[in-house]
Write a structure and sequence with these properties.
Blueprint (H helix, E strand, L loop, with lengths): L32 H4 L4 H21 L4 H10 L7 E5 L4 E6 L3 E3 L2 E5 L6 H10 L3 E2 L5 H10 L7 E9 L6 E3 L24 E6 L8 E4 L8 E7 L1 E4 L3
Parallel strand pairs: 6-10
Antiparallel strand pairs: 1-2, 2-11, 3-4, 4-10, 5-10, 6-7, 6-8, 8-9
Length: 236
């Protein structure tokens, strides 16, 4: 579109008249949409984008500051600051110590060393956790999948033991075992003095792999610890 030009009448005199401060000598021209944008507008948009970026960083890092950082460190196994996090919901991150596996708001540690059932539980407790309590089939499947690459048969202590009353099995959190949610191997639990329970992991990855074993000082097995994941809430 051609620019609209306003012509002004100009008279030449030998002696120019005094300048009128109210008069405008500028030629009027139409402005494009971009020319009408105030000079400060790009700076304002840059500021808004910067604030959004800061808000995202605050969501991630602010929960790890101050008293929340202290709470996190106390709740983590071995007081480690090395974490890995999974997005649990759109606004929540579920975090575990590096080397632990995350599943449904819990963290799991699969030991490389072996010990008695009592010593295994103490090792878990030193890491702010306890021997694993298996509450559902999905959790059992998860534990099996985490051990699928084992090259040899391995037993892992879990947090289930027989009470003084024979036939009564109880978890370390004092809940009784659910008969419809157990995963005993065939012909298990066997009678006799075998009050502790292991997951008997083989290359076949059988879902029903619980086996009761002896708990003596010479009975050493690997173990699985479980702790609550540290959840970071990024909601505003």
């Amino acid at each position: 579109m051609a620019s609209e030009i306003t012509y002004a009448e100009v008279k030449f005199n030998k002696t120019p008249p005094p300048a009128d401060p109210k008069a405008s000598s500028k030629t009027e021209t139409s402005l494009s949409p971009f020319q009408r944008i105030p000079f400060w507008f790009p700076w304002m948009m840059s500021g808004i984008l910067l604030l959004l970026s800061i808000a995202l960083l605050v969501c991630i890092f602010v929960p790890l500051q101050g008293w929340q950082m202290k709470t996190l460190l106390k709740s983590l196994p071995q007081n480690s600051t090395s974490l890995h996090c999974l997005l649990e919901t759109e606004q929540k991150l579920s975090c575990c110590k590096e080397g632990w596996k995350s599943f449904q708001s819990s963290c799991y540690y699969f030991s490389t060393q072996r010990g008695t059932w009592n010593n295994s539980r103490l090792m878990c407790m030193e890491m702010k956790s306890d021997l694993v309590v298996i509450n559902a089939e999905a959790e059992q499947d998860f534990l099996i999948n985490q051990t699928k690459n084992l090259s040899q048969t391995t037993n892992y202590f879990i947090g289930l033991t027989e009470q003084e009353k024979k036939g009564e099995w109880r978890w370390v959190d004092q809940t009784t075992v659910n008969s419809t949610g157990t995963f005993w191997r065939k012909d298990e639990p066997s009678p006799g003095d075998e009050p502790c329970v292991v997951m008997h992991i083989t290359g076949t990855r059988e879902k029903k792999n619980w086996n009761n074993v002896r708990c003596g000082p010479d009975d050493h097995h690997h173990y699985i610890c479980e702790s609550k994941a540290f959840v970071l809430d990024c909601g505003f």
